[in-house]
Design brief:
Blueprint lengths: L1 H29 L4 H32 L10 H39 L1 H30 L3 E8 L9 E6 L10 H13 L4 E4 L11 H8 L8 E3 L12 H14 L2 E3 L3 E7 L2 E8 L9 H9 L6 E6 L4 H7 L5 E4 L10 E2 L2 E2 L12 E5 L2 E5 L16 E8 L2
Parallel strand pairs: 1-14, 2-3, 3-4, 4-5, 7-8, 8-9, 9-13
Antiparallel strand pairs: 2-14, 6-7, 10-11, 12-13
């Protein structure tokens, strides 16, 4: 499914990029900018919008043809600053400007009839450059202002018994440790989690970003998480991205975590006791790479029978899975969305792109008798930027 979104996104980007490029060039020409300079600007826009995707596609094709064990990546400091970040900045400028550029064209048609071609052309040229310039400045300012912002959100769930202490769960996901979200930054987050004194730490997966070089470091850093009962995780998408061989990838991540006393579980149930009550937690393997079938989900849910409180942890939660789980568990903990990670302005408000694939993007939801909590995660995916999407860690106080 993800490749359909990518293909649709590239098609939309191509159409929007060509349109914005034409408007920018025409506006510069109106103010007497030299033809040679405009030509350079036009080619620069093409490179910014399509150079990075083209290089990634070529690297994948060549790696597969040569039988390499892993794909070349552009997620290091040099690749990010020279390719990834400029690409994303250009895409955001264009995609956020397009609605305004269309509105400007409509206004131009009206003004041309009333005040003449010269006045209308000048007003359109000014408006186009103002809109493009405003977004070009706003994006990095917003990103820098919110960089490393982390919300520690506390959720009270369940019916608390008078005089009893809650069962404290820390839910964390999408750390995606790499050169951008490194061990030092991860430890800062884990220290804040430990300060909440959780009874257990549950994870929605994605401990690494891509490549094998961060597997051991991510597992070693995650060992800093402390709780009475330990740390338990599901598989995320990125656990499969260390090598082209996905089984090797997820196997090495699981082994590294296990060496540091963290269990990554695949459609398994763990039981805990608190205040004389039995809590069952199901760890569902459900992500882009592997989605458990309905019969496997039902078998997993059957393993929760007899529990006083039923929890299911999954990496990804789409509408179909949520509907399947409704009223069958008390609490669903999910991740994957990064709260959108990149939430562009559509008109005047920021809109989460993650809503394309799920209604459960960030925060707490109620579906029948089932409470759903989706974390925005803490790290980055592919490009080290969060735009209008601060990270989060969830602290759940379960009353029993």
């Amino acid at each position: 499914m993800w490749f359909i979104y990518v293909a649709a996104g590239l098609a939309l980007l191509a159409a929007s990029g060509i349109y914005a490029r034409r408007r920018i060039a025409a506006s510069l020409a109106h103010f007497g900018v030299r033809t040679r300079t405009i030509r350079i600007v036009r080619w620069a826009i093409i490179w910014l919008l399509f150079g990075f995707p083209l290089l990634m596609i070529l690297s994948v094709v060549i790696s597969l043809a040569l039988g390499r064990s892993s794909f070349p990546r552009f997620d290091g400091m040099l690749g990010a600053w020279l390719l990834g970040i400029p690409f994303l900045w250009a895409v955001l400028v264009v995609m956020q400007s397009v609605i305004w550029l269309i509105a400007i064209d409509i206004a131009h048609a009206v003004v041309r009839r009333r005040r003449g071609q010269a006045t209308a052309a000048r007003m359109r040229a000014i408006a186009v450059l103002v809109v493009i310039g405003a977004f070009a400045i706003y994006i990095p300012v917003r990103v820098i202002a919110e960089r490393n912002e982390l919300r520690m959100r506390t959720h009270a769930v369940g019916a608390a018994t008078a005089g009893s202490t809650p069962f404290r769960i820390a839910f964390i996901a999408d750390v995606q440790q790499d050169v951008h979200f490194d061990a030092e930054r991860a430890r800062e987050v884990y220290d804040r989690v430990n300060a909440g004194k959780p009874d257990v730490v549950l994870s929605g997966g994605d401990w690494i970003n891509t490549g094998p070089e961060h597997i051991e470091a991510a597992a070693e850093t995650a060992a800093a998480l402390t709780s009475r009962l330990g740390t338990f995780s599901v598989r995320g998408d990125h656990e499969h991205f260390a090598y082209i061989d996905r089984e090797r990838s997820v196997g090495e991540v699981e082994a590294a975590l296990r060496r540091h006393h963290i269990q990554m579980l695949n459609n398994e149930v763990r039981w805990f006791e608190h205040n004389g009550k039995r809590i069952a937690v199901a760890f569902l393997n459900y992500n882009y790479i592997f989605r458990s079938k309905d019969d496997a989900i039902d078998k997993l849910l059957g393993g929760l029978s007899g529990a006083d409180y039923k929890i299911l942890v999954t990496h990804q939660l789409d509408r179909r899975l949520a509907s399947h789980l409704e009223n069958k568990v008390d609490l669903v903990l999910a991740a994957h969305t990064h709260g959108g990670q990149i939430n562009p302005v559509v008109g005047l408000v920021h809109v989460s792109l993650a809503r394309v694939e799920t209604a459960y993007v960030d925060g707490r939801y109620q579906l029948g008798d089932t409470t759903i909590i989706v974390t925005a995660g803490v790290g980055y995916s592919l490009i080290p930027i969060r735009y209008a999407s601060p990270g989060s860690v969830e602290l759940i106080e379960l009353g029993l």
